[in-house]
Amino acid sequence: MKRRVYNRRQFLEASCAAAMAGLAAPSIVPCAALGRAANVSPSERIAVAMLGTGRQAYLVNLDRQLLKMPDTQVVALCDVDQWRVNETKALVERRYAERRASGVYRGCDTYVDYREVLQRADVDAVMISTPDHWHAPMSIAAAEAGKHVSLEKPITRTMAEGQAIIAAVRQHQRVFRMDSEMRSETCLHRMVEIVRNGGVGQITAVRVGVPAGDDVECPSTPPMPVPDDLDYDRWLGPAAKKPYTLERVHPPREFGRPGWMRVLDYCDGMITNWGTHFWDIAQWCLDTERTGPVEVEGHGIWPPAGQLWNVLKRFEVTYHMADGAALYYENTRNPAITGAPGECSAYVKIEGTRGWVVGSYAPHQLLAEPASLLEREFTPADRRFPFKSDKQDFIDAIKTGGRTLEDEEVAHRTTSLCHLGHIAIHLGQRLKWNPQQEVFIDNDAANAYLAQPILALPAS
Question: Do you find a cis peptide bond into 363, omega within 30 degrees of 0?
Fold first, then answer.
């Protein structure tokens, strides 16, 4: 196979190393300087490999973004499901063919073993869209192989995995971004700028609500034959060896919602899945992206024993920050959350001494009290943040040697907030947390979950 070695590599390596060494902040660079004109030459494009070609990769990461970006080139796809990788290859080559006068494009390779992708010298970056139990192993291996990493949220199953990702990314001077599009939502971006510039005054409380999408049951089912186009052993990877059932993995020959998202062997459920989206926005509002709470407690409803789908069905968590601000997290659609749109699927609300502001997703809208908060005119002295898509943020950081808006530490702290709530609910205890040392205070039972995921229902 002929390898394409892009001539920008030496520049990219040098600039990224310099920026990572200095932990440079994200910067705004003119589009022309980034080579994003319509006629970007192949040598100016960032070569991206997709690790995982499931629903999120196919429908969102590729078709809505990466395949429309002139400064990227998707050169490789990897998945243990042959049908999915073939369908994705067809999508990639179809989209690139549409840009050519000939109407033909061939040049996207497919793999089953991600390690073969990481060995390719012409791959600059990877977009990881696998089940959650693969996130940390693949990210660390990619950084060690010299690849920049864009990683689906939640980035980890444990605190220790997050710390290991940070160490690998910094040791090997790679660019990292947690793949969440919420900072690219217009209403949420504006909400952050209103709050960070004092719009609501001193923050007194933060409320995050996410969908109750795991309030379903699926009894354990007998083992089934593994589909011919699925390498199930590779899919399991570092997880415990369990018999194959369709509900444990994903629907065959389609891009439907996968069952693994509701199985503790592979995922923590909605508490981290949607939580990482909106706690990222909340932490951005609070300017606490690189720290955490000092106390956490919560309660939840688990499915009955014997269910295959065994993640939390409902939960409510309360955090306290060192400055006294209280953070509330729930997926119960509590109507008492004043200002939250009645039919919204997810929201973040910031309350302060001068009023409140709430941003929601589906529908995308911003509400405030007083309403005049939304009419604020920003001045040159105000704190502003770059507005771009999540994928463009990642690619720009690679090109400029800067840092992304959701770098490895921000991603770890956001995911950690969800893990803390999950552990508190599982143990049924109020927990004291040291955000500097990232340990629970005087609680060995809780500290045991820093390096191991929750894999079973709490003891009755």
Answer: yes
Residue type, position 55, single letter: R
Which three-class secondary structure state does DSSP give residue 333? coil
| Domains observed in the chain | 9-183 (3.40.50.720), 184-215+269-389+408-450 (3.30.360.10)
35: left (phi > 0), else alpha (psi -120 to 50), else beta?
left
Reported as a single tens digit per residue, the pLDDT across 377-414 is: 999 999 999 999 999 999 999 999 999 999 999 999 99
Task: Report the chain's terminal Cα–Cα distance, integer Å.
Answer: 57
Give yes or no for a contact between 139 and 168, defined as CB atoms under 8 angstroms apart.
Answer: yes
Measured CA to CA, the distance from residue 386 to residue 404 in angstroms comes to 10
Single-letter code of the amino acid located at 111: Y
CA distance 164 to 178: 15
Q: Which of 275, 313, 319, 315 is nearest to 296 (CA)?
A: 319
State the greatest distance between any 2 C-alpha atoms of the chain, in Å, as a whole number: 67
For 157, the token pair is 């199953």
pLDDT in tens, 330-344: 997 654 455 665 556
Contacts for 444 with CB less than 8 Å, ≥ 6 apart: none
Whole-angstrom distance, CA of residue 278 vs CA of residue 208: 7
As a whole number of angstroms, the distance between CA 53 and CA 109 comes to: 13
**Strands, sheet with 326-330, edge to edge from the N-terminal-most edge strand:** 365-369, 355-361, 346-352, 203-209, 326-330, 314-320, 295-301, 431-434, 439-440
Strand-pairing partners, residue 127, are 50, 150
Nearest to 421 by CA among 456, 444, 457, 454: 454
Output the pLDDT for position 339: 60
Cβ-based burial of 229 (10 A; exposed 0-12, middle 13-18, buried ≥19): middle
Distance between CA atoms of residues 152 and 183, nearest Å: 14
